[in-house]
């Protein structure tokens, strides 16, 4: 199967590599900045173009991968679906829940597979926590505390810093954790949020959410774009019989390991996990296209995640909890 990638910077680079690792040929690289498209097309021996809509319509393509700023996702999902392509779309699915619904309807009408990259479901540490919780290792879960933060990203044309485009840390980043909470603990009941960036541009963002899930579990989620540098993820899940903790600073995803069996005896920077979670999501997506797998995340899950962040931002504006 051949892939057209739209958006060839931050996540575009990752997805070009992951699709290639899965044995796919990424043959079209579309970016409105032709220099960026050309650089990556050269690396993967593909074709560089500027027009993402034209990439969707190519007859020599089976899959369209979308890694552009969030407000552009809907138009590319619709164009790809209308052209009969399967779609890999980065999270957040779309900028609003109503756009997500439009995207789902377009994929359904065209009978194509629409996958949204909620990659935290594929992070091995997070999946291990889910498995242990489900196995009753901490008894009845009562409280979850999640933290995700890093520096305020720029992105092309500083789009992350424009609330209208990115939705700030709550919409763009915390969405990972809100999706994971629903994945593990079921539907949310109500949400309360305090955030710095919820209507306008500020030089950094910090957001705190408290949720009650229908199961009775209470969760606190913190998202920050206020770090001077770096990125950190923490989790603490407390139950009647114990507690699970994870801190990416103590178990960093980028570790040094010595490759003694397969290569020269020197230290290589690599991940302590065998396969990148970004590759695992591609494997799931491809298995779904081939009808050999049911994907871990559905477009409906991605819509619910957007509805959760929309409710959070409504709460931040009104200062009141919002029922979901
Ligand atoms: N899953 C994750 O871990 C993760 C991490 C970061 C970002 N993201 C998401 O991935 C998406 C892309 O983020 P990014 O960090 O790669 O952004 P980015 O700004 O680094 O890259 C976006 C690229 O898209 C290009 N582009 C913009 N509009 C375009 C258009 N209309 N047509 C063609 N090209 C266009 C830009 O020139 C740029 O090269 C966003 O939805 C973001 O929220 C996901």
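^ structure tokens above, recovered residues below v
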């Amino acid at each position: 199967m051949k892939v057209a990638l739209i958006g060839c910077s931050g996540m575009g680079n990752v997805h070009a590599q992951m699709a290639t690792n899965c044995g796919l040929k990424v043959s079209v690289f579309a970016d409105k900045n032709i220099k960026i498209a050309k650089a990556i097309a050269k690396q993967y021996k593909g074709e560089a173009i500027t027009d993402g809509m034209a990439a969707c319509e190519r007859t020599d393509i089976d899959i369209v991968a979308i890694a552009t700023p969030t407000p552009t996702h809907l138009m590319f999902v619709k164009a790809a679906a209308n052209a009969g392509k399967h779609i890999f779309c980065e999270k957040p699915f779309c900028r609003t829940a109503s756009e997500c619904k439009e995207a789902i309807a377009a994929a359904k009408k065209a009978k194509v597979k629409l996958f949204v990259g909620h990659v935290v479901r594929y992070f091995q540490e997070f999946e291990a926590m889910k498995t242990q919780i489900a196995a009753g290792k901490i008894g009845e879960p009562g409280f979850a505390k999640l933290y995700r933060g890093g520096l305020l990203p720029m992105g092309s044309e500083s789009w992350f810093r424009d609330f209208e485009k990115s939705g700030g840390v709550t919409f763009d980043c915390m969405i990972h954790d809100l999706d994971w909470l629903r994945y593990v603990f079921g539907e949310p009941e109500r949400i309360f949020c305090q955030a710095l960036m919820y209507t306008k541009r500020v030089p950094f963002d910090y957001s705190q959410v408290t949720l009650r899930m229908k199961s009775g579990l209470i969760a606190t989620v913190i998202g920050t774009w206020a770090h001077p540098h770096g990125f950190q993820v923490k989790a603490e899940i407390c139950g009647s019989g114990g507690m699970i903790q994870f801190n990416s600073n103590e178990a960093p995803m980028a570790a040094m390991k010595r490759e003694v069996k397969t290569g020269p005896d020197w230290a290589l920077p690599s991940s302590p996990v065998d396969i990148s979670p970004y590759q695992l999501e591609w494997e799931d997506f491809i298995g779904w296209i081939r009808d050999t797998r049911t994907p871990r995340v559905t477009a409906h899950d991605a819509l619910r995640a957007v509805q959760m962040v929309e409710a959070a931002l409504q709460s931040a504006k009104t200062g009141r909890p919002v029922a979901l």
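Residues 6-12, 30-33, 36, 52, 67-70, 72, 90-92, 117, 119, 155-156, 159, 172 surround nicotinamide-adenine-dinucleotide (CB under 6 Å).
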